[in-house]
Hints:
Number of domains of chain A: 2
Largest interface: A-B, 65 and 65 residues
Oligomer: homodimer
Number of strands of chain A: 14
Shape of chain A: globular
Largest sheet of chain A: 9 strands, mixed
Low-confidence stretches of chain A: none
Helix content of chain A: 25-40%
CATH class of the largest domain in chain A: Alpha Beta
Distance between the termini of chain A: 15 Å
Radius of gyration of chain A: 23 Å
Mean pLDDT of chain A: 96
CATH architecture of the largest domain in chain A: 3-Layer(aba) Sandwich
CATH topology of the largest domain in chain A: Aminopeptidase
Amino acid sequence: MISNLPETNEMIGELTRLLDELAAFSDGAEPGVTRLLYTPAWSKAQRFLADKMAEAGLETRFDAVGNLYGRLPGTNPDAGVVLTGSHIDTVRSAGKYDGAYGIVAGLAAVAFLKKMHGSPRRTLEVVSFCEEEGSRFPLAYWGSGNATGVYDWRKDGDRADEEGVPLREAMQDCGFGRDDLAECRRTDLAAFVELHIEQGMVLERMEKRIGVVETIVGQRRYAITLEGAANHAGTTPMTMRQDAAAGAAECIVRLEALASQWGEPLVATVGKIEAQPNTPNVIAGTVDFSLDIRHADEWRLNAFSELALSEIERIAVRRRLKHRITPWLSTKPVPMNPSLTRATERICQQLILPYRRMVSGAGHDAQLLAAVCPTAMIFVPSKAGISHSPHEFTEPRMLADGVSVLASMLYELAYEEQRI
Amino acid sequence: MISNLPETNEMIGELTRLLDELAAFSDGAEPGVTRLLYTPAWSKAQRFLADKMAEAGLETRFDAVGNLYGRLPGTNPDAGVVLTGSHIDTVRSAGKYDGAYGIVAGLAAVAFLKKMHGSPRRTLEVVSFCEEEGSRFPLAYWGSGNATGVYDWRKDGDRADEEGVPLREAMQDCGFGRDDLAECRRTDLAAFVELHIEQGMVLERMEKRIGVVETIVGQRRYAITLEGAANHAGTTPMTMRQDAAAGAAECIVRLEALASQWGEPLVATVGKIEAQPNTPNVIAGTVDFSLDIRHADEWRLNAFSELALSEIERIAVRRRLKHRITPWLSTKPVPMNPSLTRATERICQQLILPYRRMVSGAGHDAQLLAAVCPTAMIFVPSKAGISHSPHEFTEPRMLADGVSVLASMLYELAYEEQRI
């Protein structure tokens, strides 16, 4: 167990200053932070972070896709690397915490450990992954994906952004995508710990300070089309209608009721609806809507998804609507490492921080790292659950809580070389 | 009662040829017929019709807004004018029957009556109203509105089309909007009879050949906004959501059920839905939707509208959604003249044409004329109820049925000078 922790007020000042400085690296006139992969704002942010890492006495390097690492070498080079960090890219008009907080907090924790405890036994590294959000190119987890072998930048750079620029070209224009840079694929990791804002309101509502993630949920996403007949709203009696909007509405109400009945951690969402011709005085002939289903348990995720689709089908058939269901995303739930999860809990107890075991309903770099090393994920509260918005906010003292838990974990893993 | 009727095959040829010729006056590359007010296609169609009217021996004139009249003078000039016709303008990508059929049929009926029976006692006129659809400028019934005093072109031409061209300017560029043209306002009408396609599927489903319109329904239209919270679809448990899409869906399902329960002729339609941010993985924060309610009875129209709005309010409050309801259109039901309606029925019986008394769920020029003279409205079937579409279709023999009924009515009104 760590014997001392960073002084809170000092750490708060350092974290908020660094988050503000990072937030200034943003594209254009949009509100909030917009830092898309391989844009000038992104480049400047990564170079800025490399400088900060170097100032803290870490050895810095970029790998071939632009992931930035800051390294504090351990005395036992065979013991593997303990890695912490998150992603530097953002969605459009983002807040300043999503991703950035995990990097800044990792840097603060490692800098503190170096200053107070010198060299660790296991090597410690802080990573700023180049991309996680999927905001510019039609793929996500480009950073952690290349680090874990899910992607290979030598083969997978063909997809283009909205302006038709291929990922490979953008990467090379930014100075990456070259064989002389460090290899992306990590095979030397002993553990990965990611600290992130919750992006939900559970911790706030439950008055907890730390979320200990047990599992990152699996997801199923579907595009659903109901097709009826676009008739005149005035001349078509209720009994002669094939109203795609009413059909979609019945599906949405039914899906919500089923999901509520199944209970946590299942969530099902229809966030996107498009009606055709979308005119007040014409019955909707076609409605497209999305369905997003998430659960921490794969069997239940599958079972609910099948039930949901069969209900949609039943409603469509009863209403004489044609239906088309296209699955377009399917990920499995990813459990975090149980012994790291227990260690996180214990540390929260020692620090007297109210915590809650929970699932992560959002995807994170941790779910890719979990395939290659023991992985833990720690949440701090998000005010009102708001994220992907300039209104994203976490109180500075809660940011500091996260760093305390992270520093304790990294100490145990790297300095005490605890077995995982 | 009329002693003879146009020979069906001959009339079918004449009607379909004239409808095809009119359909050729259409703007641009879009499928179907697009003939917006005061466009070149519109001008050419009106001039073409004026020529056809003149060929049939009618005296033609344009009034100040471009309504075209073809006149067969009566021997009793004090007895008022019996008018028939419909509108020449179309929606974008329309069919060739809506509006055009009423003009072409009127011309065919009057030409036949002139040929077979010479001069009528009451003057007969065929009108091609310049505008009814509201497709170019943000107002409708510009033609019949100026004829009945609802609009005054000297004052009401300020509204602009999508390209910013004011109605008055478009009218003047087309050669209208001048004081030296015929006065628009009609104060000399003895009766108006409008023949139109049903634009619904009731006649077809009921296997009737003629619809005898008792009432043109009144309408209420509302723009409704539900506002919740646009949270993350993964991290927001079902119990913590304020989902505007689920709220709107519940409203739509409830409105449909209520409308079905009230029964004909009530119809209620949600044709337009817009969700924000409209993204699969974000709970909808705001949903705007339209509500269109129609009924032939004003008291019931009001009662249902109030019930519908109170249900929306109840659903919004229970779901902790803010709601905003903006009424933007309100028209009263317009009954057709009962003695003309009975006369239409009698004529259908005499001609052995299966008919049905019904309401018109769509608005028509007849509802404006009804304020200034006894007015009747006659429907012929629309295949599959399709209208405002290039697929609009009515079988030629059914088009001819309509002309037979119309010619019989005009004969009784103008030649027999029947009391209305």
